[in-house]
Amino acid sequence: MTRYILKKTLLGIITLLLSITLLSGCFERTLPTKVSFQPMYKNMPLSCESNFHSSNEKTISSDELIKWQYQQLQFYIHGVEVNTRKNGWQPWGMTTNSNQASNVALLGETCKENKEEPNWHIELVPLDFSADITDIRFSIGVPFELNHLNPLTQPSPINDSSMFWGWRGGHKFMRIELASQYDDWLFHLGSTGCKALSPVRAPKSECLHPNRVIVSLPFTEKSSVIKFDLAVLLRGIALTRDNSCQSAVDEDSCKVLFKNLGMAVDVSVESLLFTAQ
């Protein structure tokens, strides 16, 4: 009788352990996948507290370099896809939280507003672990069907007022504002040439200059961080207030920034601004 009870107890323990193992495997498959983004200036990670020295900037004296910091660095991404050896390109959907909705995510931070927590990662639905991922691509911006809706009725983060130009123009896809002890500089990327009956009406068709940027880069299931190199974006730009850009296609500074972003470049060309690690 004692031997029977012992065998039954051992069998129960083994069954319990197997169940926990199986449930653990299922749980792992249902966890969202996090991909982090890290702002950089060349080889230096950036944050609100970081200073960097622009390579295009003259020094104030032989001993003093101009120290720049970002005051706001934010951008929307949408349309995340992965390329697998077996199935080719396929959508990689986002989960829904306060930083992402409708497969649109807002990344970055506003330094002067301490109440806002920085967000430098996206959460994606889990993929089949057997998928052999080779590349990732996504678009900087907000898709047209969401870009010109009333932000007051949209879920977070598409309702962020600091990232909205107006109904006709839609959202600022990327907002970068820098400051030094002597000057400031900004870059606002968004759609231009949008036609509507009034500034408070949404356009019925795509804007003349959509200004969305497709980013494509090598990526594997072991990749967890995508670096955003501000030095690449600022290449050839002298940081002065008069040299700021709000997506005017005829301004020289905007032309340089658009080129550095890789706009109008074939999606198969590897991004230099973003790199996966």
Describe the SSE topology.
Layout: H1 2-30, E1 33-41, E2 44-45, E3 68-84, E4 88-91, E5 100-101, E6 104-110, E7 121-124, E8 133-140, H2 144-147, E9 164-166, E10 170-180, E11 184-190, E12 213-218, E13 225-229, H3 230-233, H4 252-261, E14 274-276
**Count of individual beta strands:** 14
- What helical percentage do the residues reach? 10-25%
Shape: globular
Q: How does the helix and strand content classify structurally?
A: alpha+beta
Q: Name the poorly predicted regions.
A: 4-30
Order of helices and strands: HEEEEEEEEHEEEEEHHE
Q: What's the main sheet like?
A: 9 strands, antiparallel
Features:
single chain, 277 residues, alpha+beta, 9-stranded antiparallel beta sheet, 14 strands, globular
Please, could you describe this protein's structure?
The protein has 277 residues and is an alpha+beta fold. The protein is 17% helix and 32% strand. Strands 3, 4, 5, 6, 8, 9, 10, 11 and 12 form a nine-stranded antiparallel sheet that branches.
Characterize this entry briefly:
Strands 3, 4, 5, 6, 8, 9, 10, 11 and 12 form a 9-stranded antiparallel sheet that branches. Strands 1, 2, 7, 13 and 14 form a 5-stranded mixed sheet that branches. With 277 residues, this protein is an alpha+beta fold.
